[in-house]
Amino acid sequence: MRQKLVAGNWKMNGSRASIKALLDGLKQGIAAVESAEVAVCAPYVYLGDVEQQLQGTPIVWGAQNLSTEASGAFTGEIAASMLQEFGCKYVIVGHSERRALYGEDDALVAKKYAVARAAGLKPILCVGEMLEDREAGTTEAVVARQLDALIDAEGVAALADGVIAYEPVWAIGTGKTASPEQAQEVHQFIRQRIAERDASVAEKVQILYGGSMNAGNAAELLAQSDIDGGLIGGASLKPDDFLTICRAAG
Ligand code: 13P
User: Fold this and answer.
1) Which residue ranges make up each domain of the chain?
2) Is 167 a residue of the active site?
3) Which residues does 141 contact at the CB level (< 8 Å), separation at least 6?
């Protein structure tokens, strides 16, 4: 049985005060989450605060991006070792916003994934099609390309200790969620594609769904056999909603 993981992606939201309030709320409610792992992915500058507030709790934390470089003259970048120093367990790589707005391509995302792993972080690899892909019937081709870029560069074993998040771009921040059947279909496709290379890795890898998952729709998404958790944007900023999703995960 794969453990479920519910991770909040706060994106570029919050302040020291709002994050304190959010984490106070999560800490109060976390005892009611029985078996799922709960994580929050914070903006870099708040990672120190998050570490201080979550240390000793069951909630783990991570970042939303990282540099491919170890150190040096890379103004504005953050290295994997820095994230590790602040106690991060996870780091998101290849989020569609980074692909679309900052030009990150499959090769760069694969490199980030590898660098994160090498530093002992667990990368959360985001994949997902755009609306025009879905309408053109190329969802599987797009997701396969994104997945294969990593497998070809790093080997399928690289997925054994990582996490995949299927995030259909048309569902992100739009209030439009993939139906449980639509999501399950792609999750199953992803697992099947990995199984073609290595069945035991496919059985182990956690595949999260992301895209307008909320307190109302989480339970039926999480009930699908290949959905191992969620990567939550907007709803992760509201402690009650986020905790409802976490409880739905088990
Ligand atoms: P929303 O939950 O706001 O749609 O965002 C999903 C997401 O992008 C998580 O990474």
Assistant:
1) 5-244
2) yes
3) 133
Give yes or no: 187 in active site: no
pLDDT in tens, 144-202: 999 999 999 999 999 998 999 999 999 999 989 999 999 999 999 999 999 999 999 99
Measured from CB, residues less than 6 Å from any atom of ligand 1 are 9, 95, 167, 172-173, 210-213, 231-235
pTM: 0.98
Read off φ and ψ for residue 142, nearest 5 degrees: -65, -45
Structure tokens at 147: 């997945």
Given 3.20.20.70, 3.30.530.20, 1.20.1560.10, 3.20.20.80, which CATH number is that of 5-244? 3.20.20.70
Write the pLDDT tens digit of every residue in 216-244.
999 999 999 999 999 999 999 999 999 99
Cα separation, 93 vs 109, in Å, equals 6
